[in-house]
Amino acid sequence: MATVAEALQIAVGLQRSDRLGEARALYLRILEVDPRNATALHLLGLIERREGRRDKALELIRSALEVAPQMADACCNLASTLSELGRIDEAAAAQRRALAIDPALEPAHHGLATLLCGRGGPRDWAVSAASFRRALRLTPQRPNLYHDLGIALRQGGASDAGALALAVDSQRNALALQPDFAAAHMNLGNLLVELGRLDEALVCFRRSLTIEPEQGGALYNHGNAQHAAGLADAAVDSYVRAARAGVNLSLTRLADVLTGLGREAEAEQVLRLALTRPGSDVAGAIDMLSALLVRQGRYEESRRFFADYRYPHIADPNAFRIECLTAIAESWLAAGEVDRAVEVLAGVHGHGSRFFTVKSIAGLQQVLARQGKRLERPANPDPSAPRICSSTLATHGRFAHNVLEYVLLRLYAEKFGYRLETPDWVGGYYFDLDDPKPSGGLKPMHFARRILNDLVTGRRDDPRPDVDILSPLFLFEHREEWRERVRSWLRPRPEWLPHVDPVMQALKARGNTVVALHIRRGDFVWFRYTITETAWYVDWLKALWPTLDRPVLYIATDDPATIADFAEFAPVSLDDLARDGAVQPWKGLEFLQDFHVLMNADVLGVSAQSGYSQLAALLNRNARLFVEPDAAARRIRPYSPWTSSSGTP
Fold it and tell me: What are the residue boundaries of the Tetratrico peptide repeat group domain, all occurrences included (predicted)?
């Protein structure tokens, strides 16, 4: 009769031969004899996972680890099972446990890196890249590891040209080991597009599609590169093929190209199709269809459609309610019915870019209308002169993101003598700007942020006039030489001062030194951005407070529960001032009142990675001290919002 050890050996052989039923039966017989046999529990768990019974697999693998807690490969497989169940944080913890047991376990390094890369967010990408590198040190001839490292480096290198160069090298390393690696050709192409090397990128996509001719992802990305290169008809073909291959995200891209070609009827058909397809960009399709119907003056039709629209592939009938309400409000706004637009979105809370733009502009227009005024946008007096536009300025991000995009665009326009045209956007209403409306007829410029940054800072000198520069954009550095120019552009219009000045006046009535802190939570938690811990600010304030002249602490936050953490400093928020009758909240536009305080405080503390408070710091002329979180050191440190430009470009 076989021993348990011999039976295990036979069962493992059966499992490796894919004879899972026989292996499963033998593991169960072993466990009848030895119920605490960790190896049998673990390997039976892998069979259960392979056959789709993941909950049972978790139970078995955990039982194995209770018996043998130092079984590193079981920890690694536990992590993989948790990941398949969508329990990413638990899976990452299990991979870290495996590595604590066996630091040389390559699958755990690879698994942790993949989890963090997929989960996303700045806190994860650098760790993901480091884990891929550790895996490569253990198994250096793995093309898939070089490919995945390249993806992690690209995600974490949004503003770092050095990281993108390393990502390019990583994809080339993958291709040196496996020349027919279609995904590596595709992702190398994506990197080259971002670096502005479109001809090289197109070659990469053609190579990828030669290997896998109807691969949907490669067709989609090829379409992006073709559109960026001005090959609109070719992009249409690629997007159509991508949609046929099941990549329904390509439908909104296809509609965008068709619109640019003047084929609006076809674009409308594609957008309506996108609103019925699983996996499509539903929010984007709603925004684009709304804009198309408004542009054609079909206001009532738009309201009826979006009032009745339900996405058929999600059980929740309200999944896209905010986007639909935004479209309805947009139609009222375009028809001049400002009060109706405000009414539609009153009490609605959302984070979408288009929602923010429509709701905020409606509120600002309503204030002007009650003063008997309206904002008249000038037309470009000479559209034949060199110009640039950004038709997407109000479609990515919210207030600060849009303003920081505008700063980059205007620096570029002024440096090369171009006229800047902009659509209606919140910053254009709030600040005293007079840029002309879009005149149309410009070639789209995709993936422009690195190119524009290099042009503005002098790293390259091949400017492009007469282009529509598409979001997302942002300025990589804020040079001191631009400070006064940028501040001169971004001054609130006089019409808004009665709504924002009283907040500062109420604070000055309470003390001589206004200390303002911005504490960001909300979407920072969802997107895994760095969270500023209130304890860091409390420790900093304890040392600072006695040195200030009658200080008053103002907290601007999207999480009011954090205010209690500052109780010893008698903190004040906009809600507190409103309850005291000192100010009237600007309904729906309270973010501008908070921003005004941050922009005028005597001491300003920003949130980590928050463009909102960092923009306020850039515009603040009063503060004698600016501070920011140092997440690595878990403390608060002084910083300068504007940086010296003494370095070489």
Answer: 218-301
174-212 burial: b if 16+ Cβ within 10 Å, else e: bbebbeebbbbbbbbbbbbbbbbebebbbebbebbbeeb
Which helix (DSSP H) or strand (DSSP E) does residue 428 occupy? helix 426-430
* Cβ atoms of 398 and 368 closer than 8 Å: no
**Which residues are CB-neighbours of 630 under 8 A, at least 6 positions away?**
636, 637
646 pLDDT above the threshold of 90: no
Domains of the chain and any CATH numbers: 387-489 (no CATH), 494-638 (3.40.50.11350)
Q: Residues 4, 33: contact at Cβ < 8 Å?
A: yes
All residues at 6 or more sequence positions from 166 whose CB lies less than 8 Å from its CB, including other chains: 153, 157
CA distances from 642 to 176, 452, 483 (A): 43, 19, 7
7-50 pLDDT per residue, tens: 888 888 888 888 988 889 988 988 888 889 988 899 889 999 99
Length of the chain (residues): 649
The answer on pLDDT for 639 being more than 90 is yes
- Render pLDDT for 509-527 as a digit per residue (tens, 0 to 9): 999 999 999 998 765 444 4
Give 437's DSSP letter.
P
- Give the Å distances, CA to CA, from 112 to 15, 43, 72, 549, 619: 26, 21, 13, 50, 41
**From CA 509, how far away is CA 341, in angstroms rounded?**
37
Between 227 and 3, residue with greater pLDDT = 227
Whole-number pLDDT of residue 120? 64
What is the CB-side half-sphere exposure of residue 16 using CA atoms within 13 A? 6
From residue 56, how far is each of 20, 27, 44, 45, 46 by CA, in Å?
A: 16, 15, 10, 7, 10
The upper half-sphere exposure of residue 144, i.e. CA atoms within 13 Å in the direction of its Cβ, equals: 5
Q: Compute the C-alpha angle 216/51/23, nearest 5°.
A: 135
Provide CB contacts within 8 A for 156, sequence distance 6+: 122, 125, 126, 128, 129, 163
Which DSSP letter does residue 643 get? B
> What is the mean predicted confidence (pLDDT) over 541-547?
96
Asked if 623 and 599 count as a contact pair (C-beta separation under 8 A), the reply is no
Amino acid found at 68: A
The per-residue pLDDT for 648 is 32
Helices (H) and strands (E) in the chain, counts: 31, 9
Q: Could you tell me what percent of the chain has a pLDDT over 90? A: 73
Supply the pTM of this predicted model: 0.86
Instruction: Determine the pLDDT at residue 160.
Output: 64
Worst-scoring range by mean pLDDT, 198-212, 296-310, 375-389?
A: 375-389
- Sign of the Cα torsion 572, 573, 578, 582 reads positive
Nearest to residue 597, comparing CAs of 627, 623, 578, 561?
A: 623
pLDDT digits (tens, 9 = 90+) for 415-472: 999 999 999 999 999 999 999 999 988 888 988 988 899 999 999 899 999 999 999 8
Residue 563 and residue 517: Cα distance in Å, rounded?
10
